[in-house]
Fold each of these.
Amino acid sequence: MRNKNILLTLGLLVVIALVVAGCQSAPTTVEVTRQVEVTRVVEVTPAVPPPPVVEIPFLDVFLASGHANASDEPFKHWDAATPPVVPGACARCHTSAGYIDYLTNGKAADVPAPAGTLACQTCHNDKTMSLTSVTFPSGKVVNTTEDGEARCMTCHQGRESKVSIDKQINDTFKITDVDAQVPPIKDANGKDVKFGFRNVHYFAAGATLYGSQAQMGYEYDGKAYDPKFRHVTEFDTCVACHDQHSLKVRVEKCAECHANVKTVDDLKDNRLNGSLEDYNGNGDTKEGIYYELQGLQDVLYSSIQAYAAEVAGAPIVYDGSAYPYFFTADKDGKIAKDDKGNNVSYGKWTARLLKAAYNYQVSVKDPGAFTHNAKYIIELLYDSTADLSTKLSKPVDMAKLRRDDAGHFAGNTQPFRNWDTAGMVPAGCAKCHSAGGLPQFIANNGTTYLTGTGSLGITGVVAQPPANGFMCSTCHDTANFPKLLAVTSVPFPSGAKLTFSTEKDDKGNLKPVDANLCIECHQGRESTASVNAALKGLEADVVDPKIGFKNIHYFAAGATLFGDAAKGAYQFDGQAYAGQNTEHPLNQCTQCHDVHALTVKIDGCAGCHTEVKGVEDLQKIRMDKTDYNGNGDTTEGIFEELSAMRDKLYAVIQAYAEKQGTPIVYSAASYPYYFVDMDKDGKPDKDDKGANIRYNAWTPRLLESAYNYQYSLKDPGAFAHNPKYIIQIVYDAIANLDKAGVAGMTRP
C-alpha cells in the first residue's frame, strides 16, 4: 500500500510540472526532489561452531620421553654454535627436519639452530612408514619389514665401524706396525692430522642387535661373530621390547617369562639357557649376563691400561662422561691436566690399542648391550683382550675366559654361518641348522628317505633363514612352555624309524621321550644303504671316477647308540653287529648330557665309576678285560683300545691307496677330508690355484673303509655311546682292506 502512495505522488508531480510548463511563455527549470525509499538488505553470517579439538594419541607420553626433551644435550648442543646450525650429518638424527630430509633425499642438509626436538611427523610420514632398509656405517645393508625396526635403526646405529677403523689404519695412515707410534700426516690444507681415537657414538642399539650383519664392532680378521640376536619370536624387534613413544622397556612383558623381573634393573640378573659359559672367568655361571659382560669389560680395560703403559709408552685412563673419553693418566691414575687445567687427551695411540679401545667404547655406549646382543659384545671384548694380551709382560689367562657358547647356541660357528652368503639355509640342511627347521619338520610329520642316487631326501621342512643358534622354540612347545615338542618316532637316513620310547598311554600309543628330540638331528646323513646305493654294480677294487666320498656328517651319536638298528656306519655283508646299547643303565641322551650346556653329567658317571672326576677320566673306563686292539694292555680305557684300532685302520687305508697308485691323506678340518698326497709328505697336494686336491681315485672297497674311519672320528663320544658297535665297524673296515691287519685283535 505504501509503495502505491509513493507512485501516485510521483505521478501528480509530473502532471503539475507539465501544466506549468505549457502555460509559461519561456522555458523554466524545475527541480524535482524525488523521495525514494530504499530497502537495505543485510546479510547475517550464521554462527560457525569452533573446530573440534584433535587429540593426538600418546602425545603426553611422547613429550615426556628423551626424543622430545628440548633441554637435553642431543638437541641443544648446536644452539650456541657459530654459525648456529646443526650440520647435516648430525641433523639426520638430531632434528625432525633432518631425519625426514635424509629419508627423502638420501642426505640431510644443515638445519638452523635451535632446531627443536623430534616430533610426531618425524616417524609418522609416508617415507618412514614404508621404510624397510637400513644402511649401517660399515656399508652393510639390513632389509627388514619387522615392526618399526628400520625407523629406529636409521639413527640407533652408531657412526663408526670396523670399516672406518681399518680405513684409518690401512688407508689414511698406512700403518704396517700395529704397535708403533704413528706420526701425523698432512691434510689437503697442509694441516697436521693425528692418528687418534674414533668414537662409535651413543645408543647404537640397532647395530648391537644385528651384530655381524651391521659390523659396528671391530671384528678381528679370521674370527666369526654372531649376527642378529634372536630372543623369542614375540620379542624380536625394537618396539616389541621398548614403548616407541615413551622409549621405556616393556618390563611387564619380560615378566611373563622371567618371573624375577619387576624393574629394569632386574633384567641384569637374567641369563638364558643358551648362555651358560663362564665368560668372564670369575667362576660364577649363575650371575646375570650383564655381570658377565661387565666382568669382561673390566678385564679388557685392565689390558688396555697395561698395554698403554708397557707398549704405547704412556698411561691411559677412561672417562665415559668426558669427550674424547680416553686421556693421559697422571701418577695417581687420574686424568692429567695441562697448564690451563684442561684434560689431556690420550696421544700415544697405536693401531692395536685403537682397535681394543674402540671395542671397549662400543660395549659401554650401548647400556642395553647385554640384552640387545650379549654374545656379539662378548666376542668383541674377548678378542680385543686376547689381541692385547699377546704383547703384555703378564698376559691375561685367556683359558679362564670363554668366547663361544655350547654348540646348539654357538651362532658364530660354521654350523650356523655356512649359509650367510646364500641368504637361506636349504631344506636339506634347515632341519638341524636353523632355528625354525626342526619344529616345522616335526609339525609336518617330516621324514627322511633315500633318493635314487643314494643321497638323503627330507620332507616336511622348507628353506629357512640363517640363525644365530637355536631358540627356545626350536625344541620347546611355546604354547605349553617349557614342555618339549612331542616326538615318539624318529626317521633315520637308513630308512629305519627308531625311538627311545617304551611306555604307552591309555590308548596304546607310545609316549614321547625327550631324548627322541635329540636324535632327530644327531643321526648323521648317510648309512650302509646310501653307501651301497652309490657303489651298486661297481667292482670292489677298480677305480671309478664316478665314486665320491660319502660323509656321515657330525656327531651322529643317535646312530651310534642304536647300532645295527640305525646302520649309520658301513656294515659289511655276513657280519653281525651290536644293536641299541641298553647294557649301560644310562642309555639315553638326556640321561648323560645337560640338554642346554651339552656337557656330560659327570656326577651321574661317578656314582659307579668312582675314579671319574672329569670328562677326560671317562676315557679310562673299560667294559671288560678283552684286549681288542691286540697290544697286550687290558687295563687301558676302551677309548685307547679304539684309538689304536683306528690308527691301524688309517694305516691300511694309506697302504691300500698307495698300492692302487694314488696316495691318500686325511684332514679332519678340511672338507671333503680325503686328499691326494702324491709326494707322501702327509699334507694335501695343491692345484695351480693353491687349493687342496680332493682324493679322486676311489674304489668301492676303499670308500667303505674310509667311510668307517670318518664315522669313528665324527662321533667323538662313540667309545661311550656304543663301544662294541664302533669297535666292530673299525675291525671290519681294517679286514676289508687287509685281512692280516687284524691279526691279534679281537672283534666283540
Amino acid sequence: MQSVPSNSPIEQYLRHLHGKFARLEDGAVATYIPELGRARPGWFGIAVATVDGQVYEVGDSQIPFTIQSISKPLVYGLALEAAGLKRVLSKVGVEPSGEAFNSISLDPQTGRPLNPMINAGAIATTSLVPGNTSEERRQALLEFLGEFAGHPLVLDESIYQSERDTGHRNRAIAHLLRNSDILTGDPEDPLDLYFRQCSVAVTCRDLAVMAATLASGGINPLTGRRVLQAQNTGRLLSIMSSCGMYDYAGEWIYNVGMPAKSGVAGGILAVLPGQLGVGVFSPPLDAKGNSVRGIRVCNDLSNDFGLHLFNTPRVITPALRAIQTGADVRSKRLRPRGELELLRQFGHGIRIYPLRGRLIFATLEPVIRAVMEDARNATHAILDLSQVVDIDRAACRLLLELREVLLRQGVKVFLTGAAERRTLQEFIVSRLDQGGWKQICQHDLVDEALEACEREVLRQHTPTAQTLLEAPLAHQELCRGFSPGELEDLASRLAAEDLPAGTNVLIAGSPADAMYFLLQGEVGVFLTTPEGAEQMISRLGPGMSFGELALTDRAPRSATVRALQPIKTLRLSFEAFDRLPQEGLEHLQSKLTSNLVGVLASRLRSANAEIRGLK
C-alpha cells in the first residue's frame, strides 16, 4: 500500500465531511452495556479503503472501540465457510425482520431466527464457529476477524465482562434457541463466544479495510490473502443489504445504496462492491441504534461521489492507461534541432495525462493517486478529457480539487478536451463563473496546451533566445554553419514572397518546383483523410523551411501548406538549386543537402520518441 499525500483531494473531501458533522450533537452514547457509556461523544473518525489497498482516513480513525454487531455478517461468513450453506440455513434464515437488533424474531414453526443480523440469528451463527474446545473456537473467531482487518485483533476485556454481566436478554434468547434445538448442548458456550466476538477491539480504519475486503470479493486488499470465498461474500452482502441496518435497512439501501452494518459502539461498515469500503466511528446513536454522524457521512459520501450500488457501473475500466512527457511527445509545431534538443533534455517536466471512459469516483480515485505521485517533479500538467465519454459531478469536483492541489505545488495545469463535457462546464461555471471556465479550459486541444508548455520550457532554458517572431536567413535551420559569404551567395538566388493568411503556398498533388525559408509568421501542413476531411499534421514557425523534401525526388507535393497568418518567405527554386555546381557553388549545394539530412533525421528521431511514448 502506498502512502496517501496529506493534500489528496479525497482526503480533503473527508476532512470537509468531518468538519461538517463534528459539531453535530444529536443522539446519545449507548449505556445499556455500562462500559459503552464511557465513550466520548466527540470521538469521530472516517476512513475509506479501495479494493487496491489505498486507505484514506481523517479524525479519530485510530481510536479503538468494540466491533459489536458489525461482527455479525463476518462471523456469518465464517459459519458458511466452516459448516456449509445447508447447515447454516437450517439454523438461521435470511428474511428481514423489520425490527430492532435485540428483537426475539423466531419462526413460530421451527424456532429459527429470521436472519443473522439480529441478536438471535447471530447467536445461532456463532454456535457454528469451528473448534473442538471453547478456546479453539475463540481463537478461530479472533483470527478470522483479524484476517479481515489485515492484522491481529484483541479482545477488550472490560467490555466483554460488562456485556457478559448485563446480557440477560441475550441469555434468554440463547435458551429459547436451545429450546428449539437451534442450539445444542449448553447454550452458555455459544453465548459466551458471542459476547466475546462483540467485544473485539477495532478502529475506524480496520472497518474500512474489512469493508474493502468484502468489496473485493473476499480478498484483503492489504495482505492479498483470500479471507472468504466469493460466493459466500455475495451472500454476506445480500444479507447486509436487506438486514444490516435493522428497521432502518429499507431507507438506508434506498438513500445510501451500499450494503452496511452498524454497531452500538458507534461504528458503521459500508461496502460498494468492486470499488471500496467505508468505515465511520462516532458513538452517539439514534433511536434505532445507528451512529448519527455515521449515517450522515455515508449519505453525503454516496450522494456526492455517486456511490449508490444501483447507480454505478459494475465494470470499472482504467481511466488512465499511460502517462506521457514533453520529452517524448511533441506538439504539431516543427522546431529547429536546437529547440528539439532542449525539449528532449528539459521536457520531462511536462506531463500529459490522457483520461478516457467514464469518470466517476471509482475510476478517478486511482488517477488522482497516480497524478499526484507522478507530478512531484512536474512543471506543467495537461489533463486531457478528449476521450472521456461521461463525467459525473463527483468527478468534476475531484478534478477541480486536483487542479488546485497541483497549482499549490507550483505546477501549471491545463484542462483540455473539456468543451463537450457539459456537466464539467456547468459545474465550473456554478462554482466560479464563465470567466473561470475560460481560464481553466483556455486550450481545448491537447496540442495547443502542449505547444504552450513547450514555449514556456524553451523560454525558461533559453532566456536570450526566446521563440523567434522573425528569423533572418542566418537563423534558418538549413543554413546552419554557413559563412557570411555563403549566406550572401544564397540570398542572391532567393526571391522574397509575402503572402496573406489563408494562402495555399503549396497544394497537395501539384508539381514541386521550389522550397521556402519561413522568415516570419506561421504555416500549417495539411493532409486529406480517406473520408475527405482536411487535417493539420504540423505547424511551422520562423526559422523553419518547407517544400524541401521534394529536393530528394522531385515528386508531386504530398501535402498542402497554408499560411495560418501573414507570412514572409524566401523562395529557392529547384532550378536555381540545380545550377549551383555550374556556378562554382557546389559546396553551397552540399551544405544545404547535408543540413537537410540532419533536419530530417532529427524529425524522425522525434517521431520515433513520440511513438514510444504513445505505446
Amino acid sequence: MTAAQSLSDFGLYSVAAVAPELALGDPQQNVRNIQAVLARLSPVDLLLFPELALTGYSCGDLFGQQTLLDAAEEALFVLAAETVDLPAVLVVGLPLRVQSALMNVAAVLAAGKILAIVPKQYLPTNHEFYERRWFRPGGIDEPAEVSIGGTAVPFGIDLLVRHGDAVLGIEICEDFWTPVPPSSFQSIAGANILLNLSASNELIGKADWRTQLITSQSGRCLAGYVYASSGPQESTTDVVFGGHCLIAENGQLLSQSRRVGDGHGGWQGAGWATAQVDLQRLAHDRRTISAFADARRFLPYPFRVVPVPPLRTSVPSSGSHRSEVPTRWTNPRPFVPADDATRTERCAEILEIQVAGLTRRLTQLPSAQPLFIGVSGGLDSTLALLVATLACDQAGLSRQRIHGITMPGFGTSQRTQDNALQLMQNLGTRSEQIDIRPLCLQAFRSLDHSPLAIKIDAETDVESLQAQLRQTPGDANDLVFENIQARLRTFVLMSRGFVLGTGDLSEQALGWSTYNGDHMSMYNVNASIPKTLVQFLVQHAADHLFTGQVRHVLQSIVDTPISPELLPLSASGKIRQSTEQSLGPYELHDFFLYHVVRNGFTPEKILFLARHTKFSEPWDQAFITRTLATFYRRFFANQFKRSCVPDGPKVGTVSLSPRGDWRMPSDAHQGPFLADR
C-alpha cells in the first residue's frame, strides 16, 4: 500500500457498536460516559450507540418531563461538539420533541454538527413494552426538517447518510423485528451499512434469535449490519437489558460483544464490538445479483441522502492516527473453514452433494454400464474414486460397477502406483493396470518426436528409453512428451465407456491440464472443488468414513507431494516434477481464485489482503506479486479449456462452469490486470 492509499481505498469501513455505561435519566453524565468510551476506543469511521442512549430507555413517565427533554437536547449539542476533532460519525438515540409530539429518534453527528435525525417507525406496546404511552411513531408525512436549538436539521424516515463509499441506513429496535424492516427498503435505496439502535432485554434464547435475524438481514440486504443495545444499568424493575452489540456482513457475523447471560460471568461497565466491513465486496455482490437492483421498483417512497462533510483524520488530543492496517481477519484458505468443527461439517456436506450428483447421473446410464476412472494415486483421482464408491453404496449398486484403471507412465512413482492399486483393492472396486509406455513409444515414433531430445530409433524399446530419460537434466521440459501421456490415458479410458473425470477447480482456473486429455470426461464430480479443499475432503474421508487399510492408504495419499508425474523420474527414482514449484503454491492460487471470481477484487486489493494474511509460509511481497501475475496470465490464456469442460456438481460459491457461473470469452486480454504490478 502506497502512502496515498488507505483502508478506505480498499473499501474497508471501520465500525463500532457500543453499549456505554448508563446513568438512567441523567443525559449530561451519559455524555461523559460516551466521552470515556471515545477515549478508549481506537479511531473508527462510525460509532453506534443504543436506543435513547442519552437518557436511558426505561425512564417511563419521566419522558413527560420537560427537564429531562431539555437536558437531552443540551447533551446532544455537547456530544455534537465532541465530534469536531473526531475522524468518525456518531449515531446516538434520544427522545426529541417534534411538533406537538415526542419521538424516539436517532441523531447522526459529525464534524461538530447534527447532520440528520431519523425517527423510530414501529413502537411496541405489548408484553413488557409500552412505548406508545410516550412516543409517536415516525411516518412518511413528517416534516422534512426539525429545529433543534435554533438549527434546522434534516428529519424523516426517508433519510440516508453518505460517508465516503458508505451509505448509512438507520432503524431503531422494533423496526427490525417487523415483517418488512425499514432496513430492507434502505438497502434497496442504496444503504450498504445498516444501523440499529436498540434496547433489547435478555430472555432465554433471545440472544441466539437476535443474532440469527441480524445476520440473515445483512445477507438479504447485501449489507453490513451494526447493532448496539443498552446494558444492565437500565431499570431492572421487570426486565434486564444485556448490552449485546453485534456486527454482521452479508450473512456472516463479524463481531459481537459480551452480554448479560452469555455464560462468561456477566456484563461489566461498557461493552462494544468492532469490525471492518468490506464495502467493495458488498458492491460486487450488488452488481452481480440482478434481483437486488430489480427490487427498486418496490420502494414505497424516494429517499434523501445527507452527505457527511470532510472529517479530520487524526485525534489531536491524543496525537493518535487511524491505523491503516486491517483488523479484519482474512482466511488464507478461503475455501476451507478454519474452525475444525465447521470444516468437518463442510466436508460432509460437500461429499453428500458430490455423491448426490453422481448418483443421479448413474440413473441415466444402462444398468450394466461400468463407471471408468483413471486412478493415479494422487489426491484428485482418489476423491473421485471415493465419491464413486459412496454413490454406488447409496444407490444400492455393487462397487464392482466401478472400473478403476491405473496407467503408469514414464514419471509414475512406485508410491503412487502402489497407493492406487491398494486403494482400489481395499475399496472392493474392479481394478486394472495398463502400462501406457509402449503406446507412448509408438506415438513418439509415429510423430517422429524426440522426447526430451532423445532420438527414437529402431532399437529403442520402453526400458532403454526409460533409462535414458532418467539421465536427462532435472530442468528439462517437453510439453509434447507430457501431453501424449495424458491423452493416451484418456484414450484408454474413453475407449472403454463412461468416464468419471478427476480434475479440480484450481486446475481449471490455471489451465493445468492437457486439452482433450485429463481435461475431458463424461462427468466430473471434482469440477468445483479447489485443490486446497481436495486434501481436506480426502482427510475427512479417512477420519470419518473409512477404517483399516483404506484409511491407511488415504493418509499416505494425503501426505504425497502434488505432481502430475508426467516428466521422468530422477536417476534415483524420485519425482522431479512438482506442480507447486512450477506454478506457485496452490494456497496462493486458491486465495487469488476466490477473491477474483467470488469478490471481483482488483489486483491491488488482492495484494493488499495477501500482505496482511498469515499463510502457511512467510512468502515475501515480491513472490506473491509474481505468483499473482502467473495466475492472471494462465487464467486468461486457458479460458478456451474451460469453455468445454464436462458437467459436474457445483458445491460452493465459486464455479467456472461455462454453463453456469463463468461465461468469459477465450479472446479476453489480461492487460488491465497485469499493468503496473
